[in-house]
Amino acid sequence: MSDPEIVRLRRENEELRREKEAAEAREEKERREKEAAEAREDKERREKEELARENQPTTLVEYLRNCHTYIYQNFKLADKSVSSTGSRVDGKFYPMPRLAG
Fold first, then answer.
1. Could you tell me if residue 86 is inside a domain?
2. Least confident of 32-41, 65-74, 75-84
3. How many domains does the chain have?
């Protein structure tokens, strides 16, 4: 082999190597873009499912459970020191019932 032929083969070899690297880089970029698109689609699907779950009609059991959780558990008995025994009812301000007789 002559020197010009060796130089030509080396150039061709280098060009093929660069083309191969460029093709691998393109494939890697396409793979990353595909993975990102799949991740976005998966996230959108999960968000839609969550929204559908939140917006579905409430069943009676769920309603009663929510009432118990969010309303009745917040009721507290007052301490005896802050409660009163009330006033005497003597008929002055409150009408007394008539006894049947």
1. no
2. 75-84
3. 1
